[in-house]
Design a protein that fits this description.
The complex is a heterodimer. By secondary structure, chain A is mainly β. Chain A has three helices and nine strands, in the order ααβββαββββββ. Chain B has a single domain, classed as Sandwich (Immunoglobulin-like). Helices cover 7% and strands 46% of the residues of chain B. Classes of the chains: A mainly beta, B mainly beta. Chains A and B meet through α3 of A and β2 of B.
Chain lengths: 174, 274
Amino acid sequence: MQLRPHTLLIGGSLSAALVVPVLAAAPATMDVTVTIPRLKVAEYHRPYVAIWVEKAGAPAKTVAVWYDHDMKNNEGTKWLRDVRQWWRASGRSMSFPANGVTGATRAPGTHKISFSRVQLGATAPGAYVLVIEAAREVGGRELLRIPFTWPAKAGAGGRAAGKTELGAVSVAFR
Amino acid sequence: MKKIILGLTATIAAATLAAVPASAHRQWMLPSATVLSGDDVWVTVDAAISNDLFYFEHHPMRLDSVKAWAPDGSEAPIENQATGRYRSTFDVHLTQKGTWRIASLSDGLMGSYDLNGKTERLPRGTTTANLAERLPAGASNVRTAESNNRNEIFVTVGEPTTTLFKPTGKGIELVPVTHPNDLFAGEAATFQFLLDGKPAAGLPVTVIPGGIRYRDQLGQIDLTTGADGKVEITWPEPGMYWLNVTTPRAPREEGAAAPQRRASYVTTLEVLAP
């Protein structure tokens, strides 16, 4: 499982390796920075946020879902379907709480979360899309997509900026 | 005006049968949601017969023959039933994950018989089962045709399933090529319609988006099933849609004796925003 991608990685990065001698430091982690905007609304609830990875021809892989996971009788799951693209792509086939994926809703501000290549389901080299979708109770919904490839170059990756329910979202590799 | 009043009376009379051929007014069931998540899931359904979709403004749908089926095929209770002046309402506790069916089915027998030199029509409420007892002694030349009306909706908890789509072989039925709880605006969906278990070619399919009251154009989409009974619908926008398939009526000939086989199908489909 580990061997094949590794071989490919070396083969693919051969020319780069000549210039940059630190092949061993090929990024293994993606840092995702998510800004949840502060909204001036009469009734504010923190948004439900789902982050998942898409790859053509493969099932979507959820890497994080922030929702009201600590309500009695798991009641917070009732609104998961409102994160509707994620629900269709991945959520509806999952059960909750989901190990390593479920998290609490986050307050307005900037949040950094990190995922390993395995967590992202990006062990095979290729083109991927990181998708982040936010849906807010009595509010709106917004979805952003950030394409990335693996193997990735260390440093800043793609970014996207939301207009309503999400602020700036960016990825970096290390 | 006179025509409308006539249609109205006919609907009220027929409403006791629970499922009305959708020719006059539109019969519908409107679920509170079709795509659901959670551990303790309920759906509330409004049911009415009206002109505008989906406004309860004319007549409630009778709930006598409404039933619900869980994804595993078992029948589930219809709870908290109430019938008001303009609509009926009920709840279904969705205790299993997967796709549920909520349906109102009515099957009848239409036709006539001869008695003492006169032709009489079969009384309302005649079915294959009670035909013998409804026919008076001495009736001859009995001509009958079945009518099957199906009004059904689907709601899904978690992942859509297709276990409930095994055709019964009676009336018009929907076979999902696209799952009816996986519809998005801008995407094309394909459904297959069967009549008595066989692909129904050339049947007219009518699709009307809800919210009629607040627009000038009906926005009706008219389609016809292909040789394989299939139609493809591209949803112009998100919302609730009413879909109706009815066997077309052949032009009535003077003194035509043979009653016609009739079947109708109604469903409400929710199309989500991409």
